[in-house]
Amino acid sequence: MKKLVILGAGTAGTMVANRLVRMLNMDQWHITLVDQDPVHYYQPGFLFAPFGIYTQKDLFKPKVCFIPPLVKLIQATIEAVDPDQNKVHLGNGMTLSYDFLIIATGTDIHPEETPGLGEHEWGKSIHTFYSFQGALALTQRLRNWEGGRLVVNVVDNPIKCPVAPLEFIMLADWYFHEHGMRDKVELIYATPLDGAFTKPVASRLIGEMLSDKGIQVESEFMIEHVEPDAKKIISYDEREIDYDLLVSIPLNKGADVIGKAGLGDELNYVPVDKHTLLSNKYPNIFALGDAAAIPTSKAGSVAHYAIDLFGDNFVRYTEGYELLPTFDGHANCFIESGFGKGVLLDFNYEQEPLPGLFPMPGVGPFSLLKESEMNHWGKLMFRWMYWNILLKGQELPLTPTMSMMGKWKV
Questions:
Q1: CB 33 within 8 A of CB 73
Q2: Are 390 and 398 in contact (CB under 8 A)?
Q3: pLDDT for res 405
Q4: Residue 159: is it exposed, middle or buried by C-beta count within 10 angstroms (0-12/13-18/19+)?
Q5: In 3D, which of 97, 110, 146 has the Cα closest to residue 125?
Q6: Any alpha helices (H) in 111-163, and if so which ranges?
Q7: Are 381 and 43 spatial neighbours (Cβ–Cβ below 8 Å)?
Q8: Which one of 31, 97, 120, 238 counts the least CB within 10 Å of its CB?
């Protein structure tokens, strides 16, 4: 009996467990999934909660609802991973041995890494929507906020869902318009990037959108510390930005246990082959989703497309064949731009976002690099697809690798 252990029952871990239980001969395999949290959070929904689009009950369900019966789910902390001995030590005293290990421990925010950020003003004049509790606290703060300067600051990259901070500030523009107080609010987006986004064409488009909405972009702002009492953020080049309300996207890091095991880089993400997701150090360890150190977005769509290709590749690998370099870094990103509209990006490792129609040439129904109401509805429809299709490891009628059909050069 071969043993597969999956660490993390978030998006990637749950999807791959559901996919592999259907692809492997379960008379010959034993799959164990480990996660300490019994609750599965719909993290893309954290963005919408502060603006009243989603309620608290829209954002979570029990994890057991999505774990197939043939997979053993253990609710426990992961105390240590010993890759040389092929063992995982759990906080409940159990030790799991494995033939293959899939690391899907995700990423989390670390406000304590930035001086002054996570101190006495955290949850008061400094908030985040990158956690469930943070989104709920920010929801309450916006309900009572009377206006002033709202600053959205990204501490550093990579971050989970890199378009979410842009969406937040554009939704804030819409929200304050809806509440008749936009003239009382100044919106500033402070980013370490040299523009609004990482890809040049998309960065130019989004930058123009922000400018049209009266949102100031402070680019190449590498935050060094926060002065919470003075309510200002200071960059390494000594620029200062005052705020009345700071919405922070703190430093994102992978799980500490991965770093301690010698499996992670400086941010505890697992270096892997970007096309096969196999560890650069161990031939029986893979990393999926946000836990992987690959040059693409840390987003649910990336995990979905990667796992679409990973299943067949993993099966052939366990049967003694070489892995195929199948994953191309494909990502889709719906960007909420406010007022019932959105933008869609489709890109991969090599190809930046282009204009066009997706997924069907000449038909769409989604437009690329262009605001539309359909893109907004696509973003909202994703929640149903997430709970009912993607988490359960079911395939969508979309090619997992990026297609140039329906796109045109600019």
A1: yes
A2: no
A3: 87
A4: buried
A5: 146
A6: 132-144
A7: no
A8: 238
Integer Cα distance of 324 and 201 in angstroms? 31
Report how far residue 391's alpha carbon sits from residue 18's, in angstroms, rounded to the nearest whole number. Answer: 8
CB atoms within 10 A of CB 212: 9
Beta strands in 36-184 (DSSP E): 39-41, 60-62, 71-75, 78-82, 87-90, 95-97, 100-103, 108-109, 126-127, 148-154
What distances in angstroms separate CA 169 from CA 47, 124, 340, one per listed residue?
Answer: 10, 19, 14
**Structural domains of the chain sorted by starting position, each given as residue range(s) with its CATH number in brackets:** 2-108+253-318 (3.50.50.60), 110-251 (3.50.50.60), 331-390 (no CATH)
CA angle, residues 314, 317, 322, in degrees to nearest 5: 125
The pTM is what?
0.96
Name the β-bridge partners of 291.
Answer: none
Cα 122 to Cα 205: distance, rounded to the nearest angstrom: 33
Residues 6+ apart with CB under 8 A from 242: 149, 230, 231, 232
| Amino acid of residue 100 | F
- Residue 253 CA to residue 328 CA, distance in Å, equals 23
Residue (of 351, 354, 383) closest to 370 by Cα position: 354
What the block records as the tokens of 152 is: 């959205």
Three-state helix/strand/coil letters over 61-86: EEHHHHCCCCEEEEECCEEEEECCCC
Contact in structure between 242 and 231 (CB atoms under 8 Å): yes
CA angle 243, 299, 59 (to 5 degrees): 75
Q: How far is Cα 63 from Cα 87, in angstroms, rounded to an integer?
A: 24
Tokens 């979309």, residue?
A: 398
What is the Cα gyration radius of the chain? 21
